[in-house]
Design goal:
mainly beta; Porin; 14-stranded antiparallel beta barrel; 4 helices; disordered N terminus
């Protein structure tokens, strides 16, 4: 029981850090950086348990392949670079929206933590728990940029606590199930074009000048939601493993507040006349999608192994972003998303030198294709994502009798990404027309430590 208490204490301490740590955008707004060792293979084979305890995030049954009390801690530094190029914008009454491009980098760097612990309760039963940040997003623009009525700051973070029990049926089959408790916290802000609202709705009764009488809105909310995980790993031969895993959807009903900066006399006049743009409570529903993954791990000999991964995410659940205001005078704020289901696929190779100066090291490589769920017509400045290609490298080594170190690096290539929003789109009447092209790339460096008690 000493190992159990020690492992739990370490995990609890790291879990507190996870709540305060940064986060970063991945395909859609999923975060795959839950394993430093698997990052080196571009997550190929991770659902087949091709690495270590951290594979349990992707397939709960990977827990059954481990033994002994242990903890694993991962820190992934994600450095995205995203900038709007050659953008133009105008209001619903064709007034030019002037301003900059939002800044030289609208995507913040972030440290993404992940922590795991396990205890083998018997020869067949293992108990594990993971604390991760599976979904996240941060983009932030300069206050005067041309798309300010669509977005200023978008910040979403999650913390997921996932206890798991695995059972080794026999030498061929392992199964597992887990429970998810997930906290979500979100903040969204944008400017408000009171000048154009005044011209269109009140015929200029308050003297508003389009794009010159701005206010702002900020919405915050949080919630706890719950789900489950399932996994199976089939090992037909000692050199072959096949894994299938399922992470359930988690539905959230965020509850929070909306605050408004009226900017000046124009905003104050419109608010007073309509009862709108008054600080109030808000609610918003979001369902974070289920994921089905398939993994293959195949040893060729004692030194070489190859692996493959495919994961399907049901992003079609994200059909709109609707914010409901407690103030009955304030209409819902709606953004049409209409995202599509998407696939992630990767191939990897692992080399374990048997002798020579590199003996004791494990070297990894991999490539991946990550399909974006975002339709071109509905891409917004909050999440200007597109398809991406991964190239990954990694290495591991036991540095002490009970301590393993893993390092991973990935560069992600993104195509130039268009944004083409019009005032005829849902909710865009007073957000304006916005056209532009984003140039983006991402670098990820992961460090992972595994300690056995």
């Amino acid at each position: 029981m000493g190992g159990f208490r020690n492992a739990w204490g370490v995990l609890a301490a790291f879990g507190l850090l996870a709540v305060a740590a940064g986060r970063a955008e991945a395909a859609g707004f999923a975060i795959k950086e839950q394993s430093g060792s698997a990052l080196g293979n571009a997550f190929a084979g991770v659902s087949a348990g091709g690495h270590d305890l951290s594979d349990m995030f992707f397939n709960s049954a990977a827990l059954a392949l481990q033994s002994g009390s242990q903890v694993t801690a991962i820190g992934s530094y994600v450095a995205p670079q995203s900038e709007l190029k050659s953008g133009t914008a105008s209001t619903v009454i064709s007034s030019t929206i002037s301003g900059g491009n939002g800044g030289s980098d609208i995507a913040d760097d972030a440290l993404v933590p992940a922590f795991y612990a396990m205890w083998d309760l018997s020869d067949r039963v293992n108990l594990g728990v993971g604390v991760t940040a599976p979904w996240g997003l941060t983009t932030e623009y300069d206050s005067g940029w041309i798309g300010r009525y669509h977005a200023l700051k978008s910040d979403l973070k999650t913390v997921n606590i996932n206890p798991v029990v695995s059972y080794r049926v026999n030498d061929t089959i392992a199964v597992a199930a887990g429970f998810q408790a997930q906290y979500i916290d979100a903040e969204l802000s944008n400017a408000i074009d009171f000048g154009t609202i005044d011209q269109v709705l009140t015929s200029g009764a308050f003297g508003g000048v389009p794009t010159q009488d701005d206010g702002a809105a900020t919405v915050k909310g949080d919630d706890w939601g719950y789900g489950y995980t399932l996994g199976v790993i089939f090992q037909p031969t000692p050199m072959t493993r096949i894994g299938v895993a399922y992470r359930s959807k988690i539905s959230h009903e965020l509850d929070g507040s909306a605050t408004f900066d009226l900017g000046g006399s124009v905003g104050q006049g419109i608010s007073g006349a309509t009862g709108q743009f008054v600080d109030t409570g808000v609610k918003a529903s979001i369902t974070l999608p289920e994921i089905v993954s398939f993994g293959l791990y195949q040893e060729i000999d004692s030194e070489w192994a190859v692996m493959a991964e495919a994961a399907w995410t049901r992003w079609s659940r994200f059909d709109e972003l609707r914010i409901r205001f407690d103030n009955p005078a304030q209409a819902d704020s709606v953004t049409d998303e209409s995202w599509r289901n998407s696939w992630f696929g990767s191939l990897g190779v692992t080399y374990k030198p048997g002798d020579g100066p590199a003996s004791g090291w494990v070297f990894r490589g991999g490539v991946a294709y990550d399909e974006s769920p975002i339709p071109d017509a509905n891409r917004t400045p909050r999440i200007p994502g597109t398809d991406r290609i991964w190239i990954a490298l990694g290495a591991s080594r036991r540095v002490l009798d009970n301590l393993d170190l893993s390092l991973g690096y990935t560069h992600i290539f993104l195509d130039d990404t268009p944004v083409e929003l019009t005032t005829s789109g849902t909710g865009n009447t007073f957000r304006g027309n916005l056209t532009g092209q984003y140039e983006s790339a991402i670098d990820i460096v992961s460090v992972q430590l595994r300690y056995r008690f």
